[in-house]
Each structure stands twice: as C-alpha cells, then as structure tokens.
Design brief:
Elements: H1 14-28, E1 33-38, H2 49-65, E2 71-79, E3 83-90, H3 104-109, E4 112-117, E5 123-130
Parallel strand pairs: 1-2
Antiparallel strand pairs: 2-3, 3-5, 4-5
Helix pairs in contact: 1-2
Length: 140
C-alpha cells in the first residue's frame, strides 16, 4: 500500500504532492509535529513524480527521526536562477549532530542537496531541481 494519499503520476501541483506525501508520515510519527507548508500552488512537480515522491519521503523521514519528541517541520519552495528550490527545515538537532544521507532518488533526479543550520535552531536541507532544457534532459 502506498504511503501517500494520491497517485503521484496524476498530480501536477508540487504543493499537493508534498502535502499528500508528508501528511501520512506525520500522522504515523510517534510525537506531534506541526507542519507549515509554503509552496505556491502554481508550481508544477519539477521532475519525475515517482522519484520526487521517493526523495520527499526520504528527507521527511530523516527530519522526523531528528524530532523524536515532536517539533516543527517547514517546507517551502521558490524559483531561482538555478531552478526550483524545495526546502525542508525542522527543529531537530543541528547538522553536525545528524546524519545527512543523500537518497538515491536525489542522484536519479540530478537534484543538488545542501544542508545548513537554521538560525532559530534545527537544520534544513535544500533541494535544487535544475531547469530542464528541452533535449538536454538527462535520463535517469
């Protein structure tokens, strides 16, 4: 049984996809986690939807493992010159005290991951989905 609420192949909105993938993980988590989602509903899923789901699930699970007693998870997205950036910030420990695993889906999608400490505590990982340039798209 899939661990998301909608069929990713039928979803074009990044905001809907992220919420659909994240909400069940939060419900299953042993402690309460407050989700703040700030993604423009006009942003489309920037890459293969199944692999994007795999990437989001892996990184949300990493964040949740850093918050065994609960906390806050903020997911934002914005367009930059490099492409679409999707960021997960949590109130767990800082980056020197956490595993920073790169999910295989990131490599398959050609997504760059950057971890950083948050000024208010916790850490964030920023995923950069490069702009696709017609025939220059790399097959994964």
């Amino acid at each position: 049984m899939p661990n998301h609420w909608i069929d990713p192949s039928q979803c074009q909105s990044l905001a809907v996809l992220v919420e659909s993938v994240t909400a069940p993980l939060l419900i299953e988590h042993e402690a309460p986690v407050c989700l703040e989602l700030d993604i423009d509903t006009s942003f489309e899923v920037p890459a293969d939807s199944e692999r994007t789901v795999d990437l989001i699930q892996a990184l949300v699970n990493q964040s949740l493992s850093e918050m065994p007693d609960g906390g806050d998870l903020t997911i934002t997205a914005c367009e930059t010159a490099q492409g679409l950036e999707l960021e997960l910030a949590d109130t767990g420990c800082d980056i020197k005290d956490r595993l920073q695993r790169t999910p295989i889906a990131a490599a398959a999608l050609g997504v760059k991951l950057v971890w950083q400490n948050c000024p208010q505590g916790g850490a964030a990982v920023t995923m950069t989905f490069r702009r696709q340039s017609g025939s220059g798209r790399i097959a994964a």
